[in-house]
Amino acid sequence: MVNAIETEKLVKRFGNFTAVDGLNLRIQKGELFGFLGPNGAGKTTTIRMLTTLMKPTSGNIKIAGYDINTQADFIRSKIGVVPQTFALFEELSPLENLQFIGELYSMSESLIAKKSEELLKIVSLYEKRNVVSGGFSGGMKQRLSVAASLLHDPEILFMDEPTTGLDPQSRISLRELTTRLNKTGMTVVYTTHDMEEADKLCDRIAIMDKGKVMVEGTSAELKSKFGSGYKILISYDGTLEQPVLTSIKKMVPTGKVSVYADKLEIHVQSIAGGLVFSISNLLSTKKVKVKELLVSEPTLEEVFINLTSKNLRD
User: Fold this and answer.
1) Which terminus of the chain is less hemmed in, N or C, by CB atoms within 10 Å?
2) Considering only CA atoms, which of 145, 119, 116, 150 is closest in space to residue 133?
C-alpha cells in the first residue's frame, strides 16, 4: 500500500519534557485513521508537526511523498486542516471567507467561485452563503471549516476533534460528511476523545500515551486483543442444577462463570464457533426456562482504559 504519511523516530521536546517520543507511523493513502489518547498524550503535538505548524526536535516526516524539512510548502498545498475551534472570520459570510482562503492559495476568481458553490452545497451551507458566519451554530461553523479546508483540493485532511461541543444532530452530520469525503479517496487523519465515534468512523486507530503509540490496528483487532472480552448474561426461572453448570464451564474452559440468585454471568474473550447458540441449546435441552439472554461486546473505551489507566489527566 502507498503511504500518505510516514514518520521515522519522530521526537518533540519542550525543554526537559518529551511530548512525542520516537514515533514511527504509517498511514495509508485513502485511509481514515484515528488518533486516541488522554490529555497530554502527544496527539496535538503530533498533528501540529504533521501539518507543518511545529518543527520536530528530531526524526523524519513525509507527507504525500514530500519531506517536511525541505518541502514544507509542497506539503501545505496537499493538506487541509479542520481545527477544533472556529478559525475563520466571524464578520465575514461563508462566500467571503472562502474568497479570502482562495486568494491565499492564489486561486483564480472563477475557480474560487466555482469551488465555493460546490463546497457550500456539499456542507449544506449554500442557502446561508451570504449570511455573516458569526451567528452560526457550532455545527454550521465546523461545516464551514470543512469547506475552507477543501477549497484547494487537498489529498489529506486533518480533523482535530471536530465534533467537540456539538449537538447530536451536528455530530452525526459531520461524521457522515467525513465518511463521504473519505470514500472519494481522500486520506483523513481524525483525532477524537469520543470512543464510539472512533469505533464507527476509523479504518485503523492508534492509541497514544506519554508520547508513544501504545497500540495500533482496526477497532475489532484492538477490542479482541486488549478489551475485557464478551459478557453473556442469562436470566432464568428456577434452579440451575450442578450438572448443567458443569457442562457450561466445560464449554468455556478459559472463561469465568458466575452464578447469582436467578442469573448466570459468563465472561469469555471470544464467542466464535456459535458459543452463545450452544449454551442456549444446552439450557433448552436441560429444560432451564430462560427469561432473557444478553450479550455485551468489548468496547473501545475498555481498551482505552485498560491501556492508559483511569487516572485523570490535566
Assistant:
1) C
2) 145
Angle at 82 between CA 4 and CA 208, to 5 degrees: 60
Query: How far apart are alpha carbons 287 and 147 in whole angstroms?
Result: 61
CA–chain centroid gap for 112, Å, is: 31
164 pLDDT more than 90: no
Burial class (CB in 10 A: 0-12, 13-18, 19+), 127: exposed
Query: How many Cα atoms within 13 Å fall on the side-chain side of residue 44?
Result: 8
Residue-wise pLDDT tens digits, 203-251: 999 999 999 999 999 998 998 888 878 899 999 998 888 999 999 999 9
pLDDT score, position 101: 93
Domains and CATH numbers, the chain: 3-218 (3.40.50.300), 229-297 (3.30.70.1150)
Average pLDDT of span 55-78: 94
Helix (H, G, I), strand (E, B) or coil at 129: coil
**What pLDDT is attached to residue 147?**
93
